[in-house]
Amino acid sequence: MCRRCYSSEDYCVEDNDDGRKESVVVVVGATGTGKSKLSIDLATEFSGEVVNSDKIQVYRGLDITTNKMPVADRCGVPHHLLGDLDPVAGELPPAAFREMVAGAISGIAGRGRLPVVAGGSNSFIYADVEAATLAEQLDRRVEEMVAGGMVEELGRYFEADEEAGKLRHQGLAKAIGLAEFQEYFLGEGRGTAPAYEAAVVAIKANTRRLAEEQVWKIERLEQMGWPLRRLDATAVVAARLAREAAEAEAAWERDVAGPGAAAVEQFLKEKSEGHPHHHIVPSLIYN
Length: 287
Known about the structure:
By secondary structure, this protein is of the alpha/beta class. It has helices spanning 35-45, 94-110, 131-147, 150-160, 178-186, 193-223, 234-241, 245-272, and strands at 25-29, 48-52, 79-80, 114-118, 123-128, 231-232.
C-alpha cells in the first residue's frame, strides 16, 4: 500500500554551490529487511526520489534474481540507478558508481526534492530484524523468487550468454543465484533434481550469510560514533511469515513507517533551523 504524500514546503534542500551540504536520507539494512519499501514511503511523504546504491541492482536484467522493486510497487516514486546499466559493458568500478550516485543526489536536490538513498550518509534509516526471524524470512523470500520465475530467468541468462560461466565475478554475474545455479545449467548435473535442490539450498545459505555481513557492517557505524535509532520491524516480518497481512501492515505503520517519518521530519527541521544532526533509523522488514 502506498502512503499519501504530504507537502514539503517547510523544508528546503539546499544547493551546494555555496558550500552548504544537501539534505540526504539514507536507508540502510540487511537484505530482506525492508529498505526498498521504507525508501518509497519516505520519498512519498517528503517529496523525494529514490537513488539505488545496490551495486548489483544497478545493472539491467535478472530483475527477479536481483530482487529489484517492481515498477508497480514503486508508487510512482522516481528511482535512479536501478537497472540502468548494460551488464555487457562489464563491472562498474566503485569510484565510478559513487560518482553516479553523487550525481543523482545532486540532480534530485537541485530540483528541490529530497534524495532518499536506498542502501547506502547524512541521515541514516536502518532497517533491522531479529536474526532468527530474518533468516526464516530470507528462506521464504528465496522460495517466492523461485516460484516467481527466478530459475526460468536464469535459464534465459545462461542460454543467451555462453560466456556466463567465465563472467561470474563481474558486474551482474555477482548476483546470488548465478554461481549457485551454474552446475544445474552448465555442469555435469545439468537439469537434474539434485543439482536444482543443491542450488536452492546454497542460495538460501548465501543470502543469510550476506545479511549477517551487512548487519555487522551497519553495526560498525554505531561503533564509529554514528547515532543509531533502531526501528524494530520484527513484528512486521513475523506477521508476514504467518500470512497475517492486516497485522503486518499495522505493524509496519506503527513500528517502521511512522517512526521513520518522524525521524526524517526532525532531521529536516533541524537542518532548516541551522542545527543539522545525523539520524540513523533502523527499519526491520521485508523487501
